[in-house]
Predict the structure.
Amino acid sequence: MKTADFDYDLPAELIAQTPMEPRDASRLMVLDRQSGAIEHARFYELGRFLRANDVLVVNETRVIPARIHARKEPTGGKVELLLIKRIDSVTWEALVGGKGMTLGKRLRLEGEREAEILGVMEEGRRLVRFDAPVEDLIQRVGEMPLPPYIHTRLTDPERYQTIFASQPGSAAAPTAGLHFTPGLIARLKAQGVRFVTVTLHIGLDTFAPVHEENPEEHQIHTEWCQLTPPAAEAINAAHQAGGRVVAVGTTSVRTLESAAVNPGEAVAGERVRAFEGATGLYILPGYSFQVVDAMVTNFHLPRSTLLMLVSAFAGRERVLRAYEIAKREGYRFYSFGDAMLIL
């Protein structure tokens, strides 16, 4: 297995620059991972492919407006900080844009706040210590950290949040959840489909391309996730009732599989147990899924760990064939793009 096995060409015009209106009007490719059969639909038709007792597992993380501007002390040079992960009340891991961001360098932020570079890490990352908590500051002056392939200004920052978003902590949106609307949720619940929420706070490593020739040598960074006891109970109950566990997004997949019970230790009908903590689960082809029966996901970047995860679930050749069909049919790719349901 090589990283190049997960490469494909994508015309720039197929990268979605704006979100679909309404959210559930996006296209939906339905892929049968056993036969390889493909059906084309719209996301508002999702209920056609689900049945009573199926459980949709959605990530309720909320993107923080984590891009903030600062100036160097004492020169006044401009610096941009992208907060990635909160370490403690005043310390963050951040991507820092600006020259000379060495150990001990001091910064001044809007509102007379100050910060210091506490540590130098790989790939432009820095450990930054602020002189006070910055949650209030980023809510006032922070900017939404849209992916670099989106060049159109987002007029409504809430369109880069799912309607489930309630737990602040992500540097990026769980984009498979962007397609849901209150009306669609109500219709799905009326037909007996259940909803369960999990939390995984997404770091930017999720979207980073793999540079190593062998993807197994890639170092995936950990992300904090949580599956509560009530959520675990609901998932196990749905399974016992004959329902499928449908993960909405790769982040939900990683949370569920991180909470999987070892088959040798499981009691009757038990697939998951409550889990809270860091997960470094890296899913590549050959991985044996313990919990997830189906998946809603977007179309992912080439050579990314996300494309590798989807390939592990449905088969690399089958997924790449589906991507070629999506290109031919004019599907929209990446964060604001269309969706795929893998059954």
